[in-house]
Amino acid sequence: MIAKGKSYEFLENIRGEKRGGATARVVEVLRNAIVMHAFEPGAPLDKARLCERLGVSRFPVSEALARLQDQGLVDIQPQRGTTVSLIRISDVRENMFLRKALETEAVRALAATMDQETATELKANLAAQRKAVVGGDKQGFHRLDLAFHDILLTELGFPRVRAVVESARLALDRVRFLLASPLRRAQTVAEHERIVAALEQRDGAEAARTMGAHLDQVMKELMSFARREPELFTDWQD
């Protein structure tokens, strides 16, 4: 099933992109379409139509699809074509485990060292999140949510930790966007506010607890969603 129609008109045409960057741009365009559920789990991907719409040759499209397969976002089967991967709950669990282990310890450490500049940056991000919630800006809120966590990890100052969390986060983007109802977005802002409040109070234990509860809520809501729409998942068992 394709949410936006078989013409793929919703995809950005990148004709004229420099040769060396064409594959990366195709990856970006298709990944965003999958994460934002313009292509739903299980949707077939027609390579010829993708080439036509994107304005590129078959090579960058084939390379991009191979990279997206490595990221667990598409399935490529010889003689049967390419489809958007169903969501694997086992992968979500593993990546959320990584995020929780690292991000709870990140805020625990940050509580003792966070400066006023970072606190101000976080509060500005929260204000923008609240505005996105009121305005119903789902995509804008998604970007601000990612930025909130990135501010924390950047301030921590451990590049390898940030890289591992980024990798896990990339694998979770599709789920986070899927669950981003208006209520969940409002709840996310409240959870982020509690994290910042704990950091400002220099309470590392509370910051870690609130971050853990925030990330746990994603898994709880995912399991509830999977019960309602099991056809989107490849390893769902009630």
What does this structure look like?
This protein has 238 residues and is mainly α. It is 67% helix and 4% strand. It contains nine helices and three strands, in the order αβααββαααααα. It folds into two domains: 19-84, Orthogonal Bundle (Arc Repressor Mutant, subunit A), CATH 1.10.10; 89-232, GntR ligand-binding domain-like (Four Helix Bundle (Hemerythrin (Met), subunit A)). The protein is globular and about 60 Å long. The model is unreliable at 1-5 (pLDDT under 50). The protein has helices at residues 22-35, 47-54, 58-70, 89-110, 116-135, 138-156, 159-178, 182-200, 204-228; strands at 44-45, 74-77, 81-84. Strands 1-3-2 form a three-stranded antiparallel β-sheet.
Name the descriptors.
238 residues; mainly alpha; Four Helix Bundle (Hemerythrin (Met), subunit A); 2 domains; 3-stranded antiparallel beta sheet; 9 helices; globular
Order of helices and strands: HEHHEEHHHHHH
CATH class of the largest domain: Mainly Alpha
Strand order of the largest sheet: 1-3-2
As a whole number of angstroms, the C-alpha radius of gyration is: 19 Å
Uncertain residue segments: 1-5
Shape assignment: globular
Specify the number of helices: 9
Structural class: mainly alpha
E-strand count: 3
If you consult CATH, what is the topology of the largest domain? Four Helix Bundle (Hemerythrin (Met), subunit A)
Distance between the termini: 24 Å
Q: Which CATH architecture of the largest domain would you pick?
A: Up-down Bundle
Helix percent band: 55-70%
Strand content: under 5%
- Biggest sheet architecture: 3 strands, antiparallel
> Quick one: CATH superfamily of the largest domain?
GntR ligand-binding domain-like
Q: Count up the domains.
A: 2
Mean pLDDT value: 90
